[in-house]
Amino acid sequence: MFKLLKQKVSNLMAKTNRLVLLRHGESEFNLKNLFCGWHDAPLSAGGVEQARSIAAANLKSAGMEFDKVYCSKLSRSKRTADLILSELECSFLPIVSDWRLNERHYGNLTGVNKRELANKYGEKQVQHWRRNYDGLPPPIETSNLYFYEICNSSDFQNVPIDEFPLTESMRMCVDRVSPVWEEIKKDVLKGTRVLAVVHGTVARALIKHVEGLSEEQIEKVNIPNSVPIVYEFNMATGQLIGESKYLGDVKYIEEMKQKVAAIGD
Ligand SMILES: O=C(OP(=O)(O)O)[C@H](O)COP(=O)(O)O
C-alpha cells in the first residue's frame, strides 16, 4: 500500500512522461544463433543474469520507476519483465501481455541457424530477410519442427484466424504493432510511466513509431538484449524530448549492437 502511494506521489511530481523500451534477455535461440520468431524459446541462463544485472541494475541506478508494463505472449518477454519487476521490488505493477507485441514471425526460417542459412543462400539474401523493410521469409510449412507448437499454442488462442501470420516482413510487423503503440502512447501521455519488454523487431517497430524514422533508417537499427532505451515526452504537448537514451556501458552497448547486426557464427 505504502509503495503504491509512493509511486503515485512520485508520478505526480514527474516533470516528463516516460517510455522505456527493452528487448528481453538473451534466449536459448539467441545463444544458438537460431531464428526464433513465434517459437517460445526460454531465456538462457545468461539471459536471466542479463535481465537482473544489466536491465534491472541500470534501471535502478537511473532511478527509473514505472506504473505499467507491456510485454508479448512469449515467455522470454514475460520472464524478463517478471525478473526486472522483482529486482525493482514492484511485482505488483499491472502487466499487459499482448500477442501483437510478439516477435516478427520468421516463417520457415524459424529454428534455422543464421550462419548455416548464409552458407546456403549467401549473406546478402539472409540480410535481406533479416533487415530489408519488405524482406519476407518463406511462409512456415507443416514440415517445420515448430509449426504445430506455434499454431496450437494456447498463448495465441485469441489471435484472430485471419491475422495469424505464417510469415512477416518488417513492414507487416510495424503495422501489426501500430494499435498497441496507440494504446501505449495514450498511457504515456496521461502520465503513466510505461516499461515495454519486447523483442528485437518489435522494439524496432516501436522505435520507428516513436521517433518517426524512415524505412531506410529503421533497417539500420539493431537492438541489444536487456539494454533499456529511455524516451521522455513533454507532458503538455506529448512531443518527444531529445533523443533516445540507452542506459548502460557505452562500449558494451556498441559492441552488442554490432553483434546483433552481424549474421554471427
Ligand atoms: O526472435 C528473434 O528476436 P528476439 O530474440 O528479439 O525475440 C529473432 O530471431 C532475432 O533475429 P534477427 O536479429 O535476425 O532479426
From TrEMBL:
Signal peptide as annotated in the record: none
GO terms classed as biological process: glycolytic process
Catalytic residues, chain numbering: H24, E103
Marked site (Transition state stabilizer) residue numbers: H199
Catalytic activity: (2R)-2-phosphoglycerate = (2R)-3-phosphoglycerate; (2R)-3-phospho-glyceroyl phosphate = (2R)-2,3-bisphosphoglycerate + H(+)
Pfam family, one: His_Phos_1
EC category: isomerase
EC number(s) on file: 5.4.2.11, 5.4.2.4
Protein name according to UniProt: Phosphoglycerate mutase
Natural source organism: Drosophila virilis (Fruit fly)
